[in-house]
Give the backbone structure.
Amino acid sequence: MTADAFETLDHYLRQAGAATDAAESHGFVTGVLCAAGGMDPAAWLPQLFGEVDWESPAVREAARAVALLFQSQRAQINSPELEFSLLLPDDERPLAERAEALAHWCEGFSTGLGLGGLNKERPLSEDSQGFLRDVSDIARVAFDFTVPAEDDEQAYMELQEYLRVGVLLLHEELQPLPAPPPVQ
């Protein structure tokens, strides 16, 4: 996903008066895909948009953009080339803005997992349980960049990659690909 895709989706969501921004929406869609493998967008779009006028052209356009994002992400997360990436602001944006978006992404991801049907009764590997605790912690953290450190940028990039790989591993655990047929 590109920075332009983030800005475009964020614009549509703001115009529609949606309850979420682009990062949180992407996290949400990713969580639904991990937990449910796919759901009819009509089942979860109201969660992203909140109280809006569904007849509004801006809302319909934003809903269409989110539905397209869902289709695109389903292809990426299932890609054998591991194409999945988080939809976040461009690296040229201030680090504080990007870190806040990362926290929003984690909030959306957690909500999407819940709506997709992941619950505490489902047994998960220790790695997945730890990853989900980390996602929850990242969603709640208050980043302080008033005195930027040299390694803040590197830490942000590592955290972003950790989340990307963690999503792929969680998705594989929750939505394993079917085994190929035996060779005869």
Observations:
- The chain has one domain: 3-174.
- The first helix runs from residue 3 to 16.
- The CA atoms of residues 22 and 87 lie 7 Å apart.
- The two ends are 40 Å apart (CA to CA).
